[in-house]
Amino acid sequence: MTQNQWSSVDDYFDSVLGNEDPALAAAAQAHVAFDLPDIGVSRPQGKLLHLLARIQGAERILEIGTFGGYSTIWLARALPPGGRLVTIEWERTFAEAAAGHLEQAGVAGVVDQHVGRALDILPTLAEAGGPPFDLVFIDANKPDTPEYFTWALELSRPGGVIVVDNVVLGGAVGEAGNPDGGVRGMRRFHEMLAAEPRVSATSIQTVGGKGYDGFTLALILP
Length: 222
Fold this sequence. Notes:
It is a single chain. By secondary structure, this protein is of the alpha/beta class. Helix content is 44%, strand content 23%. The chain is built from 9 helices and 7 strands, in the order ααααβαβαβαβαβαββ. It has helices at residues 3-17, 22-28, 30-33, 43-56, 70-76, 92-105, 118-128, 145-155, 181-195; strands at 60-64, 84-89, 111-115, 133-138, 156-165, 199-208, 211-220. It has a 7-stranded mixed beta sheet, sandwiched between helices. α2 runs antiparallel to α6 (92-105), α7 packs parallel to α8 and α8 (145-155) runs parallel beside α9. GO terms for molecular function: methyltransferase activity. Its EC number is 2.1.1.-. InterPro entries: Cation-dep_OMT (IPR050362), SAM-dependent_MTases_sf (IPR029063), SAM_O-MeTrfase (IPR002935). This is O-methyltransferase. Keywords: Methyltransferase, S-adenosyl-L-methionine, Transferase.
């Protein structure tokens, strides 16, 4: 199959199952203002996150990597009354753009935005001693994914779910000698998963409008 075919199938699914409103559509175009590739999750992936959060009954969600707020909106809209979402973004201009999209989507009141280096902010969340998270979505700097996962495990409850995006990297994750920092980070992350007795996990390859990649789903065992 070709990229055109993958995109065509995504377009079909979007036409029959998509329910993207103007706020989501605006957040999906955040990359344009920053002259960046389309690095956010796709509409089907956003809906998958939303459904996972609802299936999980998640009342507390942590997101590492806000970007334009697209996945944030999907996740926030899955929260029950009284639920909260904490999201972390390194780049202030991205976070400011996301804040506008969250306001437009009507979810700003249930989202706590943090701006700064995630590996500096995550320890402060642990020190604050708040309730554990039910679901964590990691979609940030790929070389640091193992450290993000370590904190996600620390901050989540038994029975919680951790989702890590972009784990396939166009197939490069299978290349043991690849020197790229993101590839090395993802390989180290999977080796960590294999050695971690507290979780049961799987990684799924995906194709679609955003190309060839995949995600990892990890369940924290009771």
